[in-house]
Amino acid sequence: MDKRSGVIAGGNWIVDYLKIIDVYPAQDSLANIKKEFMNNGGSPYNVLKDLSRLGATFPLKAVGLVGDDDNGAWIKKDCQRHGIDATALVATIEAPTSYTDVMSVESTGRRTFFHQRGANAFLDVRHFDFQSSKGKIFHLGYLLLLDALDEIHEGGLTGAARVLRQARQAGLKTAVDLVSEDSERFQRLVFPSLPFVDYLFLNEFEAEKCTGVALSGEHPDAEALEQAAAALFARGVREWVIIHFPGGVFARQKSGVVLRQSALKIPDEKIASAVGAGDALLAGTLFGIHEEWNMQDSLKLGVCAAAASLFDASCSGGVLPWQECLTLQELYP
User: Considering only CA atoms, which of 331, 252, 210, 290 is closest in space to residue 8?
Assistant: First the structure.
């Protein structure tokens, strides 16, 4: 067989309307908008654009739905500028391109999201075709934010689980990311996909929602992280569980190997926004996995890419070529 190469990413394609505010207000009170930007949003969009900015020389391909509107055309042009194949990014007349109003507090970079689901709600199994693909990794995100793919079908599988199964049957490795939804839907909608997931990425909030193991804080308890990862492997994850949190990353392999990688300590005054940090971490880690680095080095690039993203208010504007991302370790502890 020809050597596989490339990352295919599908799921939420979103235009982010990012607003930098002076304070997050209490209900019925006022905050001031200091700056505002229009930029990329959604897991596949952010991850593919980050991979491009990291300097990926392998193919990048988009799968998803946008509206037949100006925002949809803007996304396609942006993909073209970054070398992303958008032939499977389909414009639909059923709904407008999805968008999110992102409120990011100027002093902390913390953000809150107000989301219009739009065309992403109609993305379904029929929009994915891996039969002729020579790609190496398929990434899907975000579970819990894709209405049709989150539906449970006969046999107990969600649409997302069926897509991931098809990707693995076609010879691709699979990666998945979740959305930090404050609900009780996690186990019901995430668990059906896990037997078809090679690399599961989730933050401490999402891991706690999936497993019931308490993981709050900048540095969750090490034993609790082990318990959460074990619970996710028990539900079928095939290779790695990767849990990220403000202080760093915990990764466990199914064989029992445990890796930890501290985050870089970026001074608060240098942080423009944390809005794209999780996706940048995922992109950096996938870059290393694709290039067959060991997992520790992949995680190191992940935290460095996440750190680089903090310097810009947009999701991807701060991400640097991978060599430059790694030099940030010399500047920040």
Answer: 290
Dihedral of CA 130/210/250/234: which sign? negative
Helix (H, G, I), strand (E, B) or coil at 181: coil
Residue 278 CB-half CA count within 13 A: 26
Structure-token match 């920040």, residue found: 332
Q: What is the β-pairing status of strands 14-21 and 60-67?
A: unpaired
Pick the CATH number of 7-25+33-322 from 3.20.20.80, 3.60.15.10, 3.40.1190.20, 3.40.50.280: 3.40.1190.20
pTM for the full model? 0.94
**pLDDT tens per residue, range 6-57:** 999 999 999 999 899 999 999 999 999 999 989 999 999 999 999 999 999 9
Angle between helices 70-81 and 43-54 (to 10 degrees): 30
Any idea where the domains of the chain sit in the sequence? 7-25+33-322
Do the Cβ atoms of 61 and 79 come closer than 8 Å?
Answer: no
Instruction: Please report which residue ranges of the chain form alpha helices under DSSP H.
Output: 43-54, 70-81, 159-169, 186-190, 204-211, 222-234, 277-290, 295-309, 322-327
| 8 A C-beta contact, residue 153 and residue 186 | no
User: In whole angstroms, how far apart are CA 72 and each of 119, 120, 121, 323?
Assistant: 10, 11, 15, 32
| 330/308 Cα distance (integer angstroms) | 13
DSSP assignment of 66-119 equals EESSHHHHHHHHHHHHTTEEEEEEEEESSSPPEEEEEEEETTT--EEEEEE-GG
The per-residue pLDDT for range 193-221, each reduced to its tens digit, is 999 999 999 999 999 999 999 998 788 99
Contact 7, 48 (CB under 8 A): yes
**Closest listed residue to residue 11, CA positions, set 63, 73, 72:** 63
Cβ atoms 310, 332 nearer than 8 A: no
